[in-house]
Amino acid sequence: MAGASLLSLLDDIATLLDDIALMSKTAAKKTAGVLGDDLALNAQQVTGVSADRELPVVWAVAKGSFVNKLILVPAALLISAFLPFLITPLLMLGGLFLCFEGAQKVFEKLSNNKQPHDSEANLLVLDRVSYEKDKIKGAIRTDFILSAEIIVISLGTVAAQNLTMQLSVLSIIAVVMTVGVYGLVALIVKLDDIGLYLLSAPNVSGIKKAIGSSLLVIAPKLMKVLAVAGTIAMFMVGGGILTHGWHSLSLWINSFSADLAAVSFSWLAYILPSVMSALFGLFAGAAVVLLGMGAARIKPKSS
Questions:
Q1: Residue 11, C-beta contacts closer than 8 angstroms, at least 6 positions apart
Q2: Cα Rg for the chain, rounded, in angstroms?
Q3: What is the pTM of this model?
């Protein structure tokens, strides 16, 4: 009797694990798009950090990302259970903040108003500590918003399931996404070191020499591309959150894209919504930046 009960329990556990694996796979597919933006954003966050500090900075941000998800997973479950109407407004606030940060980067680039702390090469040793802390804080703050979107999307795939299933799937997604993103970020930022290692290895072969040389050429260019892609991703993710939260605007963008694709190129139906969401994010972020600049100018006059 006890043996039969044990076998029944093991069968129930196996079934549950199969269901969790299936639901996790479905959730991972739905969050794959955000994963690409997350990777671009976080890779460009470590630009400007000295080579010997790149991995420690990535590790510090990864730890912060785990903490973010430890907060977000139970918070998402609680809000979904008791205050589901708050999920969209909170996400939209996060999306607006992401657009604001992206717009700040654009304004700084256009004005060529680079502060001394923007260049790692010009920093004193003591200043590098605060510089790294600012980099890490900014990356963790950005990660929080992206993680929130990943968690909410994942929660949507298991909304009809019981609490055990929801918690299990969200936990798996949180761990896999964090390890995947920051593992790839660590690989990207050390591509040049890998290239140097291949070139300096004893008895280096022609293939190793070619790969090492290619990595040394590709690595700095890739970081520059990711720096631009990371800013664009801020508008794509933030603008996408804002337009999806504004239901009528989302419907109009999809309808306009479909109509335009029908009379021109069919692939526009897939690309145009993201482009229009990114442009909306750019305008929304720029509006917040301009409002902040206006408020900063008015405040001294009133005081």
A1: none
A2: 23
A3: 0.77
